[in-house]
Amino acid sequence: MDDTAAEQPRGDVVRTRTFDAEGPIEVDIDVTVGRVQVHFGDGDTVVEVRDDPAAQPPWAEGAANLIGWVGEFLGGQFGAQFAGNTADSGSAAEQTRIEKLGNRLLVRAPKVPVPKATAVAVKVHAPTGSQLDVRTRLAPVTVTGTAGRVDVSTATGDVSLQRAEGATSVRTGSGEVNVEALRASATLATGTGDVWIGQADGAVMVRTSSGDLTVTDAGSGSVEVITGSGDIRVGIRSEVVAEVELSSGGGYVSSELDVADTEPGKQAALRVRARSGSGDASLTRAG
Length: 287
Prior knowledge:
The chain has helices at about 60-75, 75-85, 90-95, and strands spanning about 1-5, 15-20, 25-40, 45-50, 95-100, 105-110, 120-125, 130-140, 140-145, 150-155, 160-165, 170-175, 175-180, 185-190, 195-210, 215-225, 230-235, 240-250, 255, 270-275, 280-285. It has about 290 residues and is mostly beta strands. The protein has 2 domains: about 10-55 and about 90-140, Pectate Lyase C-like; about 175-285, no CATH class. Strands 3-8-10-12-14-15-13-11-9 form a 9-stranded parallel β-barrel. The longest helix has 15 residues, at about 60-75. The protein is elongated, with a radius of gyration of 22 Å. The N and C termini lie far apart (about 45 Å). About 35% of the residues are buried.
């Protein structure tokens, strides 16, 4: 195991820790504000954490100043409780916990209320097939390589996932979700944002209140996609027999594939259910 820390010319701290690779592990990341990048591939497990002022939301400084003023105005213990803990005592990167306990890698940024939190950028390289848990408040999450099980939750931030071989759950209150390949059951949900899926093989459920939903290549299992006011497009893989149900409350429903009312001669390998409140719903060829 190697642990290094360095101060950059502008004063930001960068910490790096390296752990021996012994096959797939569990990666557990918790960040309040910043950005998270995880890559699954060959080589040792490496964690890099740095202060990232560029990822700080533009309103954070003003909100933090207001909270600080209110805390000073109220004074005493109550004022301190109102202001909350701050990261002013040092670099957020320095205060981030990086630890490997058995087969589990923990990365924990300081627990600070959002307006007072200092943004940190977390980069992790872990073995292919590792499991991933990420929780953030304000941070985009990017995952490349092949993961095992994936669970990502963020209040605000886009989520990008290259490939998941295990069960997958992605939830964001406000942000886009992009997934290149799903090989098992998956639940993807965003309050306001589009969802794009490349290949889908498994039981896939997608929800968004006001975004477009796209599945470019559905081949097996089931696909259930629902949006309140966005368009839906589902592409069916060539020669796949699918059972399909498309509906829209105020949009058009269309299919460029041959659709029959009678059951096919062989069992359907794929079931598709798509519903939009006011957008269009279309069935297309994969691609």
